């Protein structure tokens, strides 16, 4: 593993990864954290990789611009909550409050990120439990447990023993998107696959799921730009 930097404004750092299995150069931009990785055949000269990157620089900068910069959570930052953009402000009460396009977070400024993350996780659990309960009742199949994680590769999952897992970041998405993910995972209680029968169950529980699934595909990666560990 090595790194090179493409000069410019801003400069772009690329991680080079050599692979014995690679037969060609492959460039990947992570929508989750914005990292750029170039995978290359093990014996390919590095100068060829640099030439390839220069050819792809316009494409790469365009996709980086489309992704947008990471957003450290702090006073003054703007964050989506249930699909609505809210400005983070210092609060004087005991709990987090929302009103007038602002989300007020009490406490010391250096505790804003952790306190807001805790509040969002609690709200996510409430919303996802309500949606999961409703869809499980409609399906006639109970689930065993519900857990939240900060997953990067999937928005939810369902285990063979009926355990549901969700990304707590779904609370930042529009409510109909969160509800779709809940319906999707509950549907796996009946169909542990993605067959036509499975999608028929999703449609019975949720309705037309295509717009919500499309939002996750096009916009979901942006929810990982909000950094609570800055």
What does this structure look like?
The protein has 230 residues and is α/β, with parallel strands linked by helices. The chain has 2 domains: 2-67, no CATH class; 114-227, Metalloproteases ("zincins"), catalytic domain (Zincin-like, 2-Layer Sandwich). It contains 5 helices and 13 strands. It has helices spanning 46-67, 112-139, 175-187, 196-206, 210-219, and strands spanning 2-6, 12-19, 26-29, 36-41, 71-72, 78-81, 84-91, 97-99, 102-106, 145-149, 156-158, 163-167, 226-227. The strands form 4 sheets. A 4-stranded mixed β-sheet has the order 1-2-4-3. The chain has a 4-stranded mixed β-sheet with strand order 6-7-9-8, with helices on one face. Strand 1 (2-6) and strand 2 (12-19) form a beta hairpin. Helix 2 (112-139) crosses helix 3, helix 3 (175-187) packs across helix 4 and helix 3 crosses helix 5. The two termini are 25 Å apart.
Quick summary:
With 230 residues, the chain is of the alpha/beta class.
Query: Which regions have little confidence, pLDDT < 50, spanning 5+ residues?
Result: none
Number of extended strands: 13
Count of runs of 4 or more consecutive helical residues? 5
Q: Count structural domains.
A: 2
In N-to-C order, the SSE pattern is: EEEEHEEEEEHEEEHHHE
CATH fold description of the largest domain: Zincin-like
Name the shape in a single word.
Answer: flat
Q: Helicity level, as a percent range?
A: 25-40%
* CATH second-level architecture of the largest domain: 2-Layer Sandwich
Rg, nearest Å = 21 Å
Global mean pLDDT: 92
The N- and C-terminal alpha carbons lie at a distance of 25 Å
- Beta-strand proportion: 25-35%
- CATH superfamily annotation of the largest domain: Metalloproteases ("zincins"), catalytic domain
Main sheet: strand order:
1-2-4-3
The first-level CATH class of the largest domain is given as Alpha Beta
Query: What structural class do helix, strand and pairing data support?
Result: alpha/beta
Largest sheet: 4 strands, mixed
């Amino acid at each position: 593993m090595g790194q090179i930097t493409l000069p410019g404004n801003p400069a772009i750092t690329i991680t080079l990864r050599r692979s014995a299995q690679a037969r060609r150069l492959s460039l990947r931009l992570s929508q989750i954290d914005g990292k750029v990785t170039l995978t290359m055949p093990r014996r390919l000269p590095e100068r060829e990789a640099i030439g390839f990157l220069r050819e792809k620089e316009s494409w790469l900068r365009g996709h980086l611009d489309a992704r947008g910069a990471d957003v450290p959570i702090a006073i003054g930052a703007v964050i989506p909550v249930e699909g609505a953009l809210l400005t983070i402000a210092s609060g004087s009460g005991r709990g987090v409050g929302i009103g007038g396009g602002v989300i007020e977070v009490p406490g010391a400024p250096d505790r804003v990120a952790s306190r807001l993350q805790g509040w969002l996780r609690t709200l996510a659990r409430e919303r996802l439990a309500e949606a999961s309960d409703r869809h499980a009742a409609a399906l006639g199949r109970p689930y065993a447990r519900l857990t939240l994680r900060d997953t990067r590769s999937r928005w939810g999952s369902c285990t063979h023993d009926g355990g549901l897992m969700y990304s707590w970041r779904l609370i930042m998405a529009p409510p109909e998107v969160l509800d779709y993910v809940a319906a999707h995972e509950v549907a796996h209680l009946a169909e542990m696959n993605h067959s036509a029968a499975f999608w028929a169950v999703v449609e019975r529980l949720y309705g037309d799921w295509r717009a919500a699934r499309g939002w996750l595909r096009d916009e979901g990666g942006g929810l990982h730009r909000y950094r609570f560990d800055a």
